[in-house]
């Protein structure tokens, strides 16, 4: 078992890193980052909690089905790509919209971001599914 | 990106990886594959073709729509033998080649997936065979 | 109905009507044999219906489009030769099917039996009427397959399976060679159409002068010889006797084995008249005739005698088709064609008799029989007619064709001159001697002499009329053809001979020719035949001694050795080729890459080192390169897993650092993340892999591996320094497009990300699918244990 | 919901920091995300006592004091170690000693442990099962009691003030 | 319907990916999972037929994913790719039906459907893509999905799990190496031409060739692709993984691997060499021919040595793919036609044989042919189906295999490759020998020693297992009896292959934003 | 004239030498892990300098990610060493 | 103006000191006798040096993205470095890595052996 010291710092890191991962996901289109990088970041911090607190302990309160997550990610990604078809466009045709929101100012809405979200889910889901499957294997 | 010493390094990594995949221990083989995968990734990046110095992230845009133009014509008129893109003479680009980086990203992710699979496979093989020696891993032969 | 339709129907009706046999069986039950006979009769009628047209010198031709893109149509050609074969095939077919009603037990799988017989008959008819070499080949191989199925009719008996396998391997293989011959013929003439070649003198001239002539001839003759059991290919026929006797009578005496003869006759116009033709066809024929004749004489199994006799008789035909003389160019051909017809009648009748005898006595061993003439008088008479015809006793048809054979041999000998003047006729006589001897042996062994005290059933009698009548009909033909030879000669042999020689033929056959050399040869034959028959025991003793001393003088020895040892021999090869260790496989791949890489260097002799190499780097960059090499070496050389993995991880971070120098922040991010995750998974894996094994690398292995590794490194290096010279002007990278359109069209500043999620998002879709696959695969790996629930 | 507020505030700031631009937009974004991140991991965090602004403000001076001491100690530590590393002859007397601690909360224990690690010559190796001792590796273990004393009197006091 | 017709190429690739995701999400509802997948798979078969029809009627279709034209990724459906896709969807549909009864429930309901769908996506994607890097991505998709499927559990458990893993490991290592080499080649190609679009590369390389500025290393790149595709197709000396992997997989997957997956290598070879590296043909053609001959020899001789029915079939695949490559290497119009016909016939026959072998294994409870015998009485249907396949592989009429061999030999001889065809012919005899020997060992001869090996299973193969076999066997016969449609299709395809201008025209005039 | 940047980067690269030495030399596994961890710190510093020199924050992101992920890695290896398991 | 100059000088000093300390920390890896002592130099000197460099950058660029991120990185290192050191040290000891010969006391070792 890891010590209280490690656990405490992991507790501190966990939200920070998750936040960072979301930041990387959202920033990806204009800055380094994106779905994959954000996803790996997320997966590694969950892995860290698994490692530090023990997979069974984490699972007692936080036990998403990672397979469902990566499947949904793949579904989301492919549906995003399909979404262009009803509009008379080719598969994966992207759309860019610039929205003016009252508080945030100009916000760029990119259909590709939805795809990137799918990537994000797939990365998180698949990596953690691997870790969980192997970790469970006694 | 004509960099001979980098090419040499990549080649040497290739050699080292090759040496490892010729070993008898499957874990060593996998390590060898990892090294080669690094080498390949670097190789792809170094085959980028722009001599730019900036990362391929456009920073200086004054609002959407405007951006750096590269002075390039993009048309394909096969009948007239015009093969896009065609740049104006003496043109130089600030960025490094974004395409190769995207390719490498894909390659890295794929090799992560493959490596994960092959590692767990090695783990199961050990469970089944009780060894990691490739010489004993030859029930299938002849 | 026009002739073409009639022939088409004659060929395909057996297939179609056989196809519905299982349905017919529901109605007719055990009597489907008669249905089959009716089908055969239908074909016979259809063939006979067109015969007059052909006899009048008019050939039948027509085609249905089949594979026009390679110039192969379903086309039929009916000339005298085809019609003769068509009549034999369908005629004997009727007899055999009828006979089978009595022969085949009701307990047998009759639908299968008749179905295969009819398939065979259809294939045979298709073969003889094919106007097209490829079509001919197709039907040819179909006869091989149906023969295979019929020989293996009793499919659980090892000897049946052995015989069936042998026949298939020999004949189908021969067929493949024949196909190659046809292809060469096509390469020479540009057509597969037989009539086209036959009717073009220039083409035939061209073939004979062509450099591929001899190859085509040999290949086609291999096919013919294998089918007709000539030369070394004879070995399958004796074993084919495992088939039900009617099958042997039909396929392995009267019809299928003559396919090779048919082929020789068919290609006669294209290839004959050359030395090669004579040497190959007649040479092989004579040797086979003598050897098989002797072996037939030595058999004790009735069907064994008949089988070897068939081989020997077919060799007669071969020999004669090889003869071409200046004075009577057609004499050999005519003799062969006549003998072919006669052989079909007497050999089929003998087989049917053999079937009757075996059916009644429950044995086929001639040494266990004797004196049956009293118990089965009708059978005895029929057998005697057949045997005497085979022995060449007048006034039966066998005598006539043997006379022609002797005449042709005499003339051929004279034509060649020198020693051949007597050698050729002498060899022919020797063949006749054996024939005479085993024919007598057959009758003597079964019907004459004393009935053995033990081994035979109590009550032996003539069979029912279903078996007698067909046999009797054949015997009738034997006598008819002998007494009135002008009927077959005029209506069958002449048209057939004309078809082969491509010129009008006037054939005069009669019982009395006058005092000719051939008459003398016949008399010598009878005397010598009687003589060696009486000396049978000493000859047998001599041969047994010889065989035990020289077991290798047997084609069967080689066949069995090849087939039985095939697995063990090839296993040695295959286990050396496929040693099972992945190292070999990897080495092969790498060596192939290296070798292939060298090819352009050798062929083009380029400057493999470009002149514009750039060695200009910052010092720190160089040091990082060095670090990477050191870290990689660490990962390679550290003997234990964990240190190696730590070193590998270090390499990964350094690669990330390098990506920074290469202006790739996204890559660096991904690299360090992936590196760490890889390390975690490495640790997960080695948790359960304690390092028990440690490789001891011998110096020789080390040297070899280092050589391979260096060669790979060199290959990559040369590839890279050349490839990184930049895009060949005037072309440009399409990355320009991304720089220009990233923001306006995709709304993103990070071009790498835009490429990933927009321009090449499709790649990324594949990439995330790969990630899912890894997860699914790992799930499968972990959950693959244990039994199914 | 109230107890999320401190976390939300912190995460709002974190968002600004990782994003690199400190402005209201970013803060609000982080603030909004915070609950969603925290809820699944609720059991990992101690939500017993509600957050009070007053208490938070009261903690600022001790925190500042602690930070100041920490920084000076760190600098000292570095200079000491730099000397050791640069000295041509290694004459150190390292060892692991047990140091009793008075902190009770997990955060306090962690902070003191980390502080010890960051300060001169000491490095927390482990904590005893009852959390009353820290096992500290020290480069100069010639007088273990002195080390333990200096920790108790120096750093631990400030940690207790600021974090408990 | 119109929208479907417009997007046929991508639908054939993306739908399986979508289905894979759905199948994972639906894994708690096995019935629905099964029904949905079978339905969609069937529809895909129809759609692929429509695509082929569309290409046949209105020429080569290019589809720009994301409407980026050659700057993104385009899919190109010409007769070759559309034909391959049609073949793939047909065989995979039948294999899927077969799997429903053959694969053990715990695999079937957890990972089998998604893996199978991704395999299909990988195949269709590899065939349709017009982008060389995308080809790499889909190769990886193929690799990992087939690895996952090889270790899927099947009923009966005749194949040891350890064997599956050993085989998978070898497969994976060799293919990872292949992938690395492919990346080197692709990167070098990009560095030389500045594009990844195959049509574009082709245009640029021909222009370089015409101007005399083509660098020599393009030849080296071309030859590296032989390693890449040769590895996928398992030609000598890259065949080693095949005899280990194909038999270890569950039979429907063996059918997919041997029937379809190795064709990817042949396809890639044709596509890359006749589209991109036309100007280097004169160097690589002899190389391919001799590698093909070596492959034929190795496959033929090794197959004779086998006693395991699936391993025998696998070696036979090695030999047979050698014939396909011989056709590719000969390179003329007729030879390519022959190679394509050969490929299709082999695909159909071999998948049928592997599916039958699954039935045989169920029946006999072993893969060792020496422990079988006389099964013709207890399994007459399998016997006749296997015989049809045997005849086709052996090249006997009236099966498609004969037509294929005939065309190939004729093509070779008409192009004066006498020696090469001689070798090929000689080893065709081996094929005949080992195929019939196998059939005889299993179905004829004395019934097996019951005391030693136990009774044959009395369990009758269900219609899910029988129907796919019968359908494929009928196809084998149809290709033999009515060969003209296939040959004309192959001829038209060969025409497109040898004249890449229409392909380039279609690919590069795709609308670009 | 060597710029400040080149000097700093070169200096940091030289700081990696001891890390690599320890990674290779060991002698114990913890030694290697310490060295690996230390190497990431140096790389982080290099990234920071590089980022500053280029005036772009992109490389800073890499530095942040590296410092986080290296922590994860170190904890994992340490736990493995300590308990012989990872998860 | 003067403020700028002072900041510039200060930042350069921080930079030089930071770099120097990072280097020293790494040098410690070679010079110090065992893993525990090496942990001292890398975590303390290395981290502080890194922090110094980050401060220097912050001083140079102010609260621009680069500066803010730099200080984020620095803080994160300060937070995690001790934990890493603690984990490694603990693991090393429990893994059986003994203290160097110069060591004078090992109170933890006793506890460990009792536990085992
Ligand atoms: Na790696
Ligand atoms: Na750290």
TrEMBL record, chain A:
Q: Which InterPro entries match?
A: CPA3_antiporter_subunitB, MnhB
Q: Does the keyword DNA-binding apply?
A: no
Q: What is its main location?
A: membrane
Na+/H+ antiporter MnhB subunit-related protein domain residues are 5-128
Q: Which UniProt keywords apply?
A: Cell membrane, Membrane, Transmembrane, Transmembrane helix
Q: Cellular component GO terms, alphabetically?
A: plasma membrane
Membrane topology field: Multi-pass membrane protein
Q: Which domain of life is it from?
A: Archaea
Q: Where in the cell is it found?
A: Cell membrane
The transmembrane segments are 12-29, 35-55, 67-89, 109-131
Q: Which NCBIfam families match?
A: PRK12574.1
Name of protein: Cation:proton antiporter
UniProtKB/TrEMBL annotation, chain C:
Q: Which domain of life is it from?
A: Archaea
Give this protein's Gene Ontology molecular function annotations: antiporter activity
Which residue ranges does the record assign to the NADH-Ubiquinone oxidoreductase (complex I) chain 5 N-terminal domain?
66-114
Q: Where in the cell is it found?
A: Cell membrane
Domain spans labelled MrpA C-terminal/MbhE: 704-782
Ion transport recorded as keyword: yes
Q: Which GO terms describe its cellular component?
A: plasma membrane
Q: Which residues cross the membrane?
A: 6-25, 32-55, 75-101, 113-131, 168-192, 212-237, 277-297, 304-324, 330-357, 378-396, 416-443, 464-491, 511-533, 585-605, 617-638, 645-662, 668-686, 706-728, 764-782
* Lipid bilayer topology: Multi-pass membrane protein
Where mainly found?
membrane
Q: Which GO terms describe its biological process?
A: monoatomic ion transport
Identify one Pfam family in the record. Proton_antipo_M
- The residues covered by the NADH:quinone oxidoreductase/Mrp antiporter transmembrane domain are 130-420
Q: What is this protein called?
A: Cation:proton antiporter
> What is the source species?
Methanolobus halotolerans
From TrEMBL, chain E:
| Keyword Transmembrane helix (UniProt) | yes
Keyword entries, A-Z: Cell membrane, Membrane, Transmembrane, Transmembrane helix
The protein's location, in the record's own words, is:
Cell membrane
Q: How does this chain sit within the bilayer? A: Multi-pass membrane protein
Give TM regions. Answer: 6-26, 38-56, 71-98, 172-196, 216-242, 254-277, 283-305, 312-336, 374-397, 417-440, 461-483
Domain of life of the native organism: Archaea
Is Cell membrane one of the keywords? yes
> Its principal location?
membrane
What range(s) does the NADH:quinone oxidoreductase/Mrp antiporter transmembrane domain occupy? 131-431
A Gene Ontology CC term for this entry?
plasma membrane
Record-given protein name: Cation:proton antiporter
Q: Which organism is the protein's source?
A: Methanolobus halotolerans
UniProtKB/TrEMBL annotation, chain G:
Which UniProt keywords are listed? Membrane, Transmembrane, Transmembrane helix
Record bears the keyword DNA-binding: no
Q: What is this protein called?
A: Na+/H+ antiporter subunit G
**Transmembrane region(s):** 12-33, 45-64, 70-89
InterPro entries (UniProt xref): PhaG_MnhG_YufB (IPR005133)
Q: Which GO terms describe its molecular function?
A: sodium:proton antiporter activity
Positions the record marks as coiled coil are none
Q: Which Pfam family would be a valid example here? A: PhaG_MnhG_YufB
């Amino acid at each position: 078992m890891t010590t209280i010291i490690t656990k405490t710092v992991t507790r501190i890191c966990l939200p920070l890193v998750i936040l960072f991962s979301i930041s990387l996901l959202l920033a990806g289109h204009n800055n380094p980052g994106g779905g994959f990088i954000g996803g790996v970041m997320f997966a590694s911090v969950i892995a860290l909690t698994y490692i530090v607190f023990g997979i069974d302990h984490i699972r007692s309160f936080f036990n998403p089905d990672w397979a469902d997550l990566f499947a949904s990610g793949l579904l989301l990604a492919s549906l995003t790509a399909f979404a262009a078809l009803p509009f008379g466009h080719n598969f994966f045709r992207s759309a860019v919209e610039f929205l003016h929101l009252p508080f945030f100012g100009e916000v760029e809405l990119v259909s590709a971001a939805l795809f990137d979200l799918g990537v994000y889910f797939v990365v998180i889901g698949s990596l953690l599914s691997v870790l969980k499957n192997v970790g469970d294997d006694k | 990106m004509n960099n001979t010493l980098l090419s040499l390094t990549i080649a040497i990594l290739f050699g080292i990886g090759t040496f490892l995949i010729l070993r008898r221990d499957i874990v060593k083989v996998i390590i060898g594959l990892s090294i080669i995968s690094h080498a390949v990734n670097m190789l792809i990046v170094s085959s980028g073709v722009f001599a730019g110095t900036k990362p391929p992230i456009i920073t200086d845009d004054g609002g959407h729509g405007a951006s750096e133009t590269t002075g390039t014509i993009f048309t394909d008129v096969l009948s007239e033998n015009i093969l896009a893109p065609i740049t104006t003479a003496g043109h130089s680009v600030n960025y490094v080649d974004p395409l190769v980086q995207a390719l490498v990203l894909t390659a890295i992710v794929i090799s992560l997936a493959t490596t994960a699979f092959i590692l767990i496979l090695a783990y199961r093989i050990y469970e089944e065979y009780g060894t990691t020696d490739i010489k004993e891993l030859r029930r299938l032969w002849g | 109905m026009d002739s073409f339709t009639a022939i088409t129907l004659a060929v395909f009706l057996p297939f179609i009507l056989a196809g519905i046999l299982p349905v017919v069986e529901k109605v007719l039950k055990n009597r489907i044999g008669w249905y089959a006979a009716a089908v055969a009769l239908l074909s016979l009628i259809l063939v006979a219906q067109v015969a007059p047209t052909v006899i009048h010198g008019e050939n039948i031709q027509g085609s249905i489009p089949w594979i026009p893109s390679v110039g192969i149509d379903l086309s039929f050609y009916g000339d005298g030769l085809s019609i003769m074969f068509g009549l034999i095939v369908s005629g004997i077919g009727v007899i055999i099917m009828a006979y089978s009603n009595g022969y085949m037990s009701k307990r047998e799988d009759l639908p299968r039996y008749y179905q295969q017989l009819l398939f065979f008959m259809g294939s045979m008819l298709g073969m003889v009427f094919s106007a097209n070499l490829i079509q001919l080949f197709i039907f040819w191989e179909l006869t091989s397959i149906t023969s295979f199925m019929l020989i293996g009719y009793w499919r659980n008996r090892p000897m049946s399976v052995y015989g069936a396998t042998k026949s298939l391997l020999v004949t189908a293989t021969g067929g493949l060679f024949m196909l190659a011959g046809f292809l060469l013929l096509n390469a020479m003439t540009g057509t597969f159409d037989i009539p086209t070649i036959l009717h073009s003198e220039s083409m035939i001239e061209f073939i004979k002068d062509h450099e591929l002539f001899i190859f085509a001839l040999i290949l086609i003759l291999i096919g013919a010889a294998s089918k007709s059991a000539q030369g070394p290919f004879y070995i399958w026929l004796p074993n084919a006797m495992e088939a039900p006797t009617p099958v042997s009578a039909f396929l392995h005496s009267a019809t299928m084995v003559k396919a090779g003869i048919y082929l020789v006759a068919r290609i006669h116009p294209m290839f004959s008249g050359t030395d090669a033709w004579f040497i190959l066809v007649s040479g092989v024929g004579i040797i086979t005739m003598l050897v098989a004749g002797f072996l037939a004489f030595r058999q004790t199994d009735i069907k064994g005698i008949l089988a070897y006799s068939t081989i020997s008789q077919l060799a007669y035909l071969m020999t004669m088709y090889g003869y071409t003389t200046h004075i009577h160019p057609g004499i050999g051909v005519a003799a062969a064609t006549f003998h072919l017809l006669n052989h079909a009648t007497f050999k089929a009748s003998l087989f049917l008799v053999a079937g009757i005898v075996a059916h009644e006595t429950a044995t086929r061993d001639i040494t266990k029989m004797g004196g049956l003439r009293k118990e089965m008088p009708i059978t005895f008479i029929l057998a005697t007619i057949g045997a005497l015809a085979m022995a060449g006793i007048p006034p039966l048809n066998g005598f006539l064709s043997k006379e022609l054979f002797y005449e042709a041999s005499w003339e051929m000998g004279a034509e060649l001159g020198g020693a051949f003047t007597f050698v050729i006729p002498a060899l022919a006589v020797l063949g006749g001697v054996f024939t005479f001897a085993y024919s007598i042996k057959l009758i003597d062994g079964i019907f004459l002499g004393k009935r053995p005290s033990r081994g035979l059933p109590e009550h032996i009698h003539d069979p029912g009329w279903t078996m007698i009548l067909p046999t009797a009909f054949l015997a009738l033909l034997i006598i008819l053809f002998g007494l009135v030879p002008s009927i077959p000669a005029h209506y069958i042999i002449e048209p057939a001979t004309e078809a082969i020689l491509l010129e009008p033929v006037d054939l005069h056959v009669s019982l009395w020719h006058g005092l000719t050399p051939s008459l003398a040869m016949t008399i010598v034959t009878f005397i010598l035949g009687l003589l060696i028959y009486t000396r049978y025991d000493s000859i047998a003793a001599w041969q047994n001694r010889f065989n035990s001393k020289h077991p290798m003088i047997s084609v069967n020895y080689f066949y069995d050795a090849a087939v039985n040892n095939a697995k063990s021999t090839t296993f040695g090869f295959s286990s050396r080729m496929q040693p099972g260790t992945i190292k070999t496989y990897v080495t092969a791949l790498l060596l192939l890459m290296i070798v292939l890489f060298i090819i352009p260097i050798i062929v083009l002799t380029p400057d493999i080192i470009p002149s514009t190499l750039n060695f200009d780097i910052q010092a720190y960059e160089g040091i990082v390169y060095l670090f990477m090499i050191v870290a990689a070496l660490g990962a390679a050389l550290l003997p234990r897993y964990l240190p190696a993995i730590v070193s590998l991880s270090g390499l990964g971070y350094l690669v990330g650092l390098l990506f920074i120098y290469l202006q790739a922040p996204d890559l660096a991010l991904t690299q360090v993340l992936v590196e760490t995750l890889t390390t975690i998974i490495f640790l997960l894996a080695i948790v359960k892999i304690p390092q028990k094994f440690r490789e001891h690398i011998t110096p020789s292995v080390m040297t070899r591996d280092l050589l391979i590794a260096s060669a790979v490194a060199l290959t990559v290096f040369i590839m890279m320094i050349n490839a990184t010279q930049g895009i060949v002007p005037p072309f440009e990278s399409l990355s320009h497009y991304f720089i220009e359109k990233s923001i306006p069209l995709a709304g993103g500043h990070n071009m790498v990300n835009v490429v990933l999620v927009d321009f090449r998002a499709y790649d990324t879709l594949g990439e995330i699918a790969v990630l899912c696959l890894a997860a699914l695969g790992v799930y499968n790996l972990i959950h693959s244990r244990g039994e199914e629930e | 919901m109230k107890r999320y507020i401190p976390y939300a505030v912190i995460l709002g700031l974190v968002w600004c920091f990782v994003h690199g631009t400190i402005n209201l937009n970013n803060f609000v974004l982080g603030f909004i995300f915070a609950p969603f991140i925290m809820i699944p991991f609720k059991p990992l965090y101690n939500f017993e006592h509600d957050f009070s602004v007053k208490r938070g403000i009261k903690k600022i001076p001790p925190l500042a004091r602690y930070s100041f001491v920490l920084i000076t100690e760190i600098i000292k530590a570095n200079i000491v170690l730099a000397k050791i590393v640069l000295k041509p002859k290694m004459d150190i007397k390292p060892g692991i000693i047990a140091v009793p601690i008075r902190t009770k909360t997990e955060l306090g224990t962690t902070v003191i442990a980390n502080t010890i690690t960051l300060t001169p010559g000491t490095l927390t190796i482990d904590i005893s099962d009852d959390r009353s001792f820290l096992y500290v590796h020290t480069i100069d273990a010639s007088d273990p009691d002195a080390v333990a004393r200096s920790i108790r009197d120096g750093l631990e006091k400030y940690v207790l003030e600021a974090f408990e | 319907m119109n929208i479907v017709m417009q997007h046929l190429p991508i639908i054939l690739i993306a739908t399986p990916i979508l289905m894979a995701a759905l199948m994972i999400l639906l894994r708690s509802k096995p019935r629905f999972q099964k029904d949905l997948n079978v339905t969609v798979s069937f529809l895909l078969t129809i759609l692929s037929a429509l695509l082929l029809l569309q290409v046949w009627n209105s020429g080569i279709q290019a589809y720009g994913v994301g409407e980026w034209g050659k700057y993104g990724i385009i899919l190109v459906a010409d007769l070759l790719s559309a034909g391959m896709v049609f073949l793939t969807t047909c065989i995979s549909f039948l294999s899927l039906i077969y799997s429903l009864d053959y694969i053990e429930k715990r695999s079937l309901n957890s990972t089998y459907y998604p893996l199978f769908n991704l395999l299909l996506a990988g195949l269709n994607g590899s065939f349709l893509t017009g982008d060389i890097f995308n080809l790499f991505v889909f190769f990886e998709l193929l690799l990992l999905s087939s690895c996952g499927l090889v270790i899927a559990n099947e009923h009966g458990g005749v194949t040891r799990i350890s064997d599956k893993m050993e085989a998978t490991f070898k497969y994976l290592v060799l293919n990872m190496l292949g992938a690395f080499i492919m990346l080197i080649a692709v990167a070098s190609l990009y560095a030389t031409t500045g594009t990844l679009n195959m049509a574009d590369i082709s245009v640029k390389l021909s222009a370089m060739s015409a101007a005399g500025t083509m660098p020599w290393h393009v030849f080296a790149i071309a030859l590296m692709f032989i390693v890449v595709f040769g590895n996928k197709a398992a030609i000598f000396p890259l065949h080693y993984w095949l005899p280990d992997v194909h038999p270890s997989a569950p039979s429907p997957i063996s059918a997919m691997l041997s029937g379809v997956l190795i064709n990817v290598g042949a396809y890639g070879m044709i596509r890359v060499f006749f589209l991109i590296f036309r100007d280097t043909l004169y160097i690589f053609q002899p190389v391919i021919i001799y590698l093909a001959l070596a492959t034929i020899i190795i496959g033929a001789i090794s197959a004779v040595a086998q006693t395991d029915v699936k391993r025998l079939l696998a070696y036979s695949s090695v030999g047979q793919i050698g014939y396909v490559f011989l056709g590719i290497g000969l390179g003329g119009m007729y030879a390519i036609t022959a190679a394509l016909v050969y490929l299709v016939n082999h695909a159909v026959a071999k998948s049928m044989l592997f599916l039958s072998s699954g039935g045989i294994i169920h029946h006999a409870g072993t893969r060792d042919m020496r422990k079988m015998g006389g099964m013709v009485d207890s399994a007459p249907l399998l016997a006749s189906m296997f015989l049809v396949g045997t005849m086709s592989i052996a090249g006997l009429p009236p099966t498609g295999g004969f037509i294929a061999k005939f065309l190939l030999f004729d093509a070779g001889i008409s192009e004066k490759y006498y020696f090469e065809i001689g070798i090929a012919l000689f080893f065709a005899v081996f094929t005949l020998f080992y195929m019939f020997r196998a059939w005889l060992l299993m179905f004829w001869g004395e019934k097996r020693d019951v005391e030693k090996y136990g009774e044959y299973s009395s369990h009758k193969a269900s219609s899910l297992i029988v129907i796919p076999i019968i359908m494929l066997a009928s196809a084998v016969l149809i290709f033999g009896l009515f060969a003209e449609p296939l040959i004309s299709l192959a001829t038209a395809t060969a025409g497109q292959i040898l004249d890449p201008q229409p392909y380039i025209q279609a690919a590069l005039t795709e609308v670009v934003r | 004239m060597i710029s400040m940047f080149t000097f700093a980067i070169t200096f940091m690269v030289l700081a990696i030498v001891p890390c690599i030495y320890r990674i290779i030399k060991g002698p114990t596994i913890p030694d290697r892990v310490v060295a690996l961890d230390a190497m990431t710190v140096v790389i982080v510093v290099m990234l920071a300098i590089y980022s500053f020199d280029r005036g772009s924050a992109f490389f800073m992101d890499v530095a942040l990610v590296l410092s986080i992920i290296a922590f994860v890695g170190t904890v994992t290896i340490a736990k493995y060493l300590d308990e012989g398991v990872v998860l | 103006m003067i403020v700028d100059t002072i900041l510039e000088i200060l930042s350069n000093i921080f930079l030089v000191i930071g770099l120097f300390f990072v280097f020293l920390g790494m040098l410690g890896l070679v010079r110090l006798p065992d893993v525990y002592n090496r942990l001292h130099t890398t975590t303390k000197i290395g981290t502080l040096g890194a922090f110094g460099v980050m401060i220097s950058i912050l001083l140079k660029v102010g609260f621009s993205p680069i500066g803010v991120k730099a200080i984020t990185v620095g803080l994160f290192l300060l937070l995690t470095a001790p934990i890493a050191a603690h984990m490694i040290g603990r693991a090393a000891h429990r893994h059986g890595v003994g203290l160097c010969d110069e060591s004078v006391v090992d109170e933890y070792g006793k506890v460990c052996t009792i536990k085992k």
